[in-house]
């Protein structure tokens, strides 16, 4: 089992024929992901990577039955692409693009919600169900199948955490990169209950960072709804205040959004909080034995 | 991206948000000419730097004669202003804003910010104008009113009424004025992709008018491509030159005050690396994200920027190679050490795709000062030891 995506999930790619879209779609196909087509306006009717190209998402959905869209369009067009996917009946949009204007994401996410479409990202590595379905830009070969679910704001920390889990002798059910922008789609509070309900997931690793309060909200939810053990790392304990640390959302404003505050909130509800990402594998091993 | 007060007020004026008249100058002579043009009889001489708390730091002063304008301009221009929002070294004042004095009856606070929880803009207002709003939020939270505005419906009449009544404005004429003020401010917030606007204080004058006495604005960097007029307002002298240079090469850099330089791919891992160094008893000298495609040129540039900091005693290169294979990155690092003269120990940890091959390449290169680490913990420990000269 897994969450959100599996070997049967049908995926289309928006921005299919672009450089990034092509490169990563090819990698996903090689991983075994069922990419059934893509969308690039004015290239409808062509074939790319052995799959059909459509002018609109609506056409692509009708012709292929895809339920997930992986979005690689340039930043200025992300909002538009997400809203198009939502109206075409896509169930989950995985937004890889970095640098989408925040205003566009406010509008697009509200519109997606209205149409019942889930979103992931933007500025995220995507989602992967180990050895079944990779929708994103992560190095597929490190994700060995197992019983640990992973949620992370950071791409490279997703890989770091996964690598340690695998080196400790375990594996991953599904790993989800949620992105580090100020406004993101699915987050801890939607994903934690999914892992709780997934029979194969026995332990959850959550990786957060400074800025915002999603990790604090997660602590409240964990206390009320999550019975499975959770290991957490919060990046940015040594980050200075008022500085954006790479991710647009990773900023401590005033006294809010610090790593210390988030670590304390998670620890208080029984989460195993590690002070360095180098300890993630060890912590999982202590829990799973 | 932030702009100066005088630029924020130019934007306000364009959208019809009332502000006192003022002129930006860069010399004492021009300050006096500007004051003459404004006419007086009272002027405010204001330091233009990208930081709040200028008044308390001595960067905002009242002048009652042209002579006084000259004396104050002389005093403030060229001074290094230290406020609670600057670093301890402060910021050099290179520009002044000479402004008409206002007849202040009351001071309010008004801002528009992005509420990340509600995922929409939030108007915040308070009758406690002129104070540090974080202190007001801490001590008297009931004195702050918050009005979320859904961008899909925009600023409606009820938002305005909540604001006017919330601030205790009872005169109907004044209510109209404050509502129109906030409506225009919200319009420009949305149209210009602002991240935050803060007016503190917003004043009510003796004649019942509302004026933005101060103006602070920040913009969404991701939207600057479609806001050329805003992008043109960027003042590079207000930014850290090393950060600006790094950004030019696609690197994200923030200087810190420790001893171990860090070069990492990905923002999360870069912060995690700093945290691990700290956990192992060392101190990080910087945050540096080389991005997804670490190659010889970006790594060389990274070394160059890190080594500008004289406190750096060792450099920890921590790369998790995903799509970019580690053997390629290893070759990039070797190339980079040839381009840049690296005179401190460099600890390299490469993990991910083709990591064992990368390790071999680095070991066989026989580069003096290059230490290969097996994982994040090992790399951090070796970096801390190297920085201590062990």
Task: Break the fold down into its secondary structure elements and pairings.
The complex is a heterodimer of chains A (289) and B (390).
Chain A: E1 10-14, H1 19-31, E2 34-39, E3 47-48, E4 51-54, H2 57-64, E5 68-71, H3 78-87, E6 92-95, H4 102-114, E7 118-120, E8 126-129, E9 133-136, E10 145-152, H5 155-167, E11 172-177, H6 188-197, E12 203-209, H7 214-225, E13 230-235, H8 259-268, E14 272-274, H9 280-288
Helix pairs in contact in A: 3-4, 5-9, 6-7, 7-8
Chain B: E1 2-3, H1 5-14, E2 22-25, H2 28-38, E3 43-47, E4 60-63, H3 66-76, E5 80-81, E6 91-92, E7 96-100, E8 104-115, E9 120-126, H4 133-139, E10 144-148, H5 157-166, H6 172-191, E11 194-205, E12 210-212, E13 216-219, H7 228-231, H8 241-248, E14 252-255, E15 260-264, H9 267-279, E16 286-289, H10 296-307, E17 314-321, H11 326-339, E18 346-352, H12 355-364, E19 370-373, H13 376-387
Parallel strand pairs in B: 15-17, 17-18, 18-19
Antiparallel strand pairs in B: 1-13, 2-7, 3-4, 3-7, 5-6, 8-9, 8-11, 9-10, 11-12, 11-13, 14-16
Helix pairs in contact in B: 2-3, 5-6, 10-11, 11-12
What does this structure look like?
Chain A contains 9 helices and 14 strands. Chain A is of the alpha/beta class and 289 residues long. Chain A has 2 domains: 111 residues, NAD(P)-binding Rossmann-like Domain (Rossmann fold); 151 residues, Succinyl-CoA synthetase domains (Rossmann fold), CATH 3.40.50. The radius of gyration of chain A is 18 Å and the shape is globular. The model of chain A has no long low-confidence stretch (mean pLDDT 95). Chain B folds into 3 domains: 157 residues, D-amino Acid Aminotransferase, Chain A, domain 1; 81 residues, Dna Ligase, domain 1, CATH 3.30.1490; 147 residues, 3-Layer(aba) Sandwich (Rossmann fold), CATH 3.40.50. Helix content of chain B is 36%, strand content 25%. In chain B, strand 8 and strand 9 form a beta hairpin. Chain B is elongated, with a radius of gyration of 26 Å. The interface between A and B is large, with 59 and 54 residues.
